[in-house]
Protein 1
Amino acid sequence: MIKAAIALVFCLSAGLLAAQNRPPAPPGQQRPPRQLDADRYSIQQATSDQAQLHTIAFDGLAYLTGDFAADTFLPPGKVSDYFGFQYMRDIDAAEGGHNTSFLTRIADNMLAVLDDAQKAKLVALAGRQQADIRRFAQMRLPLIAAFRRNLEGNAPAGTALSRQAVMRYSASLYELDGKLAFDRARSTAEVLRSLTPAQRAALAKLKFGDSRTWPDIAEQLDRRSMSHEDDVAVMTYASEMFSWYAGSLEADTYFCPERHGMYFGGFGMKTLPAMGKQNYSISTALTGDSGEAFLQVLNDSQRKLVTGILDQQKSDLAEIVTTRRAISTELRRFLDGGQGDEAKVLALSRRYGELDGEMSYLYATAFAAVGKSLTAAQKQTLNGMRVNDPNDVQGPFLYSTPIRDPQIANTDFLFAAR
């Protein structure tokens, strides 16, 4: 049964590893570049049982061997992600999409094309959005804390984690995400529509999905003139402006399997070690290999708690795809010179939040049940699978920025009577 479950999960891993394990080129010859492979990175792949289960298993390992601080880590690009950047990252022909320099290179190339007035609009957008960007990260913390309480058995007496309360709270979180996305689309589309023919010609030389066409250029922002948070926002806007401009509706709709249920430390285990390291590539095999090892440690009943999530979340995932496409369609109206419907985007975003909240509830309850049933030997084995580098940046975090003593509201409202 173990082998059957693992085969279901990790047939995708073989595909992910194929690019890494290609034979080396003969001496004196350059290895041919990988061709763009839209079939390997698509909505169908992202929502498949294989992709979802290996991601869920990895999250389970990260959650049960991690802590609150690791759970809080979140790359800034995972917020308001309707601009095709994740797809451009995943299909990169140079296989550089998961290198720490990827975003910086395309952002600097985009900024080099813009004139001072256009760049000033991005800086102004960062300043205008900064409070809500920070509020989004802060709003995640009660969910993370409540899920940890549920795992540790610290729920209020006579209560259990409430599916409906989690869904309602997640809806408000995603409504804020939709507000940020709508404002970003409106403002960056204004900049893109103002491009001159010469600027458009310069952008045409930079290919979507092929970072080999992006020259290495000097930094384009004077970081001394803005806060770290504004700098991060502007670089995010610039990179996503290019992927939005050069991409498509399908690229905007696409998400990686790790996009949902982002409260369980997966990014803290996978992405945090890249912090502060130049030219660091995150392994595309880590999720699959670690998730496989996690499932092998579990007994049959524990494993069924994890694999059972697939059927439980299937309808939510399907609706998430249609919801993301509807939101992306509204945002693209700005790019085409029209006007998006803000009320529609916010309503769709609230529904998106309900769906993600329900999936997060499923993960939280399944992981807690597994965690409470682990033997001492299983715990020791799982803890031994986590590599803790004392030199890594220490959390808790607001996105990827360490913070001290985060202020978290009482989370009793996320529990209800049994």
Note: Confidence is low (pLDDT under 50) at residues 1-36.
Protein 2
Amino acid sequence: MILGKIFFKYRSYTPLPFVFLMVIFMEPTVQTLIIGFLFVLFGESIRIWAVSYAGSETRVTGEVGASVLVTQGPYSIIRNPLYIGNILIYSGFGIMSNALYPYLLFSAICFFIIQYYFIIRIEEEFLRQAYKENFITYCNNVKRYIPFPKKLPDAVKSGIKMDLKSGFKSDKRTLQAIIIISLLILIKFFFL
């Protein structure tokens, strides 16, 4: 559980070594830019959709917590849409940059799968203690990693409405990072 707490606290910074290596070794092509950007766009779309329901609580880095069990939107078909979105974004940048391809991309994906495994364990332990039977029912109906639409029992529906404006506001840092990294890759492609 200690590893999960460390990964949870520093999850905003763990991509930095991979970004650093990507910037040093990138060799983008037209094909990798297009395919990679589609991955980034799909991943960020999932993130925006998820934070439009979960709100700014997804940005907490101190202690794991949740004021409500979010079961609406993407959370009704997969329990961890933000992490799936992140992995798609990281994969997209790996493809866009074409840096040490496929070794850097593969090692990054492996690292983030391991990191999210430990984070998910501590998050689910908190949710199990906080929401007891509702969380167990939720887990029985929604898979952890594989999207599988299934009708949720009314008892576990959170009733949260999608707030797209709040989603974009909450995900502002991720959007800024996407713009900055994309610009670095494009500068390398066009000018260097």
Note: Helices lie at 2-10, 16-25, 30-54, 81-97, 103-141, 164-170, 172-191.
